[in-house]
Amino acid sequence: MTKVSEPAPLGEPLSVFGPREGFSPQIGIFVSQLNWMRHKVLSRLKNLSQEDLDWLPDERSNSIGTLLLHLAASDVYYGLNTFDGLPWARYPEEVVNRWEPAMKLGDLGRNWIRGNDLSFYLSALTETREHTLSEFRRRDDEWFMAVDLKWGWGPTNNFCKWFHVCEHESHHIGQIDLLIKQLPSRNVVPNQDVREDSIVAGKASRTALGVAIRRASHQVHDSSPLVLNDPIAVPILGEVYRAALEAAAESIGEESSIAMRALLVARNRLAEDKLAEAVSRGVKQYVLLGAGLDTFAHRNPHQNLRVFEVDHPATQQWKRNLVASSGLREPSTLRYVPVDFERQQVSVQLEESGLDLSAPTIFAWLGVVIYLTRPAFRSTLAFIASFRNGSGVVFDYALPRHALPSAELYARDELASRVESIGEPFRLFFTPSEIRQELSAFQLIEDFDAPMLNERYFSNRSDGFSLRGRSANIVCAWR
Fold first, then answer.
1. Residue 58 confidence (pLDDT)
2. So what's the pLDDT on residue 422?
3. Which of 57, 48, 78 is nearest to 175 (CA)?
4. Across all residues in the chain, what is the average pLDDT?
5. Whole-angstrom distance, CA of residue 372 vs CA of residue 365
6. Is residue 126 in a domain?
7. From the CB of residue 439, how many other CB atoms can be counted at a distance below 10 Å?
8. In a domain, 96, yes or no
9. Average pLDDT rounded to a whole number, residues 127-147
10. CA gap 147, 155 in Å, rounded
11. How many C-beta atoms lie closer than 10 Å to residue 144's C-beta?
């Protein structure tokens, strides 16, 4: 197996940006950023086979291998322009013959770049980046700031040109991450008719798998005490998703991974805490809307509580296959409520499944609202509000971009791009004041933001595991 090496910084850790020995001050600072971004790319490449590197999700996509060679080609093309002073793309024939398929991508790249193992791409990345760094060592900040008045998009200095190379790596790392998550070698489903594909296409939700893997990762990698103690989270994934769970460990300490994992376990924990309070008041019905691979029904501590899981038929069949293949049993208190949301009414399907529409009921609506249209959100909320006093709903909602600090915009936009590319786009956002207006039919509203949830579930931890940022809130609304 090819070992993935990582570029070593000069004199400072990767995470400390600043001047580097052997480079002029401004160039050195930029080199520290280049090193960081290349490290993030290389960290994704462990255990990728030739088949993984060549795999295409469709006929118009680029493979992981093609994207890696494209990053190497970018160093070559921008180097010839900035270091050697050649007009853009007017390069020697031997350069064009070697690098043009990687630089242009598309059909040219798909036709020519395949059949290589990981060492081929790592060698190309190392060769081209070492040449870039050696050339940077020979230049000073005056050269770095020199402006090209004839550049295609307008006057541009060498700093901006090379920043575009770094930006390029940041952009393509998102594509590489998405391709890795879709690889057939990491997504083998026992029933081939039920795949973790787009809800829009009438199939099981891939985002539900991501939630389940993060919930399982919390059980395996985060320190005690766990925020959500879920002994079913790992078993339900079984052998089918063992590789995916192991792959998730590679990014377990990254800020984005910590933030997402913390949000997912916090919202489940809050929903289950509020459910326990309602059960103590006599509530005996719990409905999970968009249940995905939720495991509560399999560890339900409330003897007289009936659990109704509502989701698309394909997602439910996928879950039931996993439950069966993992040797878990289906609890007698659990009712599956398959709903084709385009053709069936949730209320009708729930009633036919045995839900007492006249009894107080608790609804959990986790990880769903952001994917809905406003009419769908309001109609479901009206249905929940029709239940008798003592009923309630717990759901999370996302704040709009204009309500986020600038430091959080990149992470939000990157995540939105990923889920949209798999057919599950973000649609619906609210500010806290807007969500209160939507909940006018409810008498008691608790709106938990990140600081409140951190205080409630993540205080006094020694591992730093906590919610980061303010992009999502969790609401509990009661009749």
1. 77
2. 65
3. 57
4. 86
5. 12
6. yes
7. 19
8. yes
9. 95
10. 6
11. 21
Structure tokens at 114: 């395949």
Alpha-helical (H) ranges within 183-205 are none
Return the residue matching tokens 């575009």: 164
Task: Take residue 391 and report the two structure tokens written for it.
Answer: 């009923």
Domain that holds residue 43: 25-186
Percentage of the chain exceeding pLDDT 70? 92
Look at residue 406 and tell me if it is in a domain: yes
Measuring CA to CA, how many Å separate 110 from each of 54, 113, 185? 9, 6, 20
In this structure, the answer to whether residues 234 and 366 fall within a common structural domain is: yes
End-to-end CA distance of the chain: give it in Å, rounded: 59
Tell me if residue 180 falls in helix, strand or coil.
helix
Give the three-state DSSP class for 439.
coil
CATH code of 277's domain: 3.40.50.150
Identify whether the C-beta of residue 457 lies closer than 8 Å to the C-beta of residue 228. no
* Distance set, CA 444 to CA 267, 342, 431, 478 (Å): 18, 32, 18, 5
How many residues comprise the chain? 479
Query: Could you tell me the pLDDT band of residue 205, with boundaries at 50, 70 and 90?
Result: low
CA gap 51, 455 in Å, rounded:
46
Q: How far is CA 312 from CA 268, 309, 338, in A?
A: 20, 10, 5
Q: Tell how far CA 292 is from the center of its chain.
A: 16
Residue 7 has what pLDDT?
45
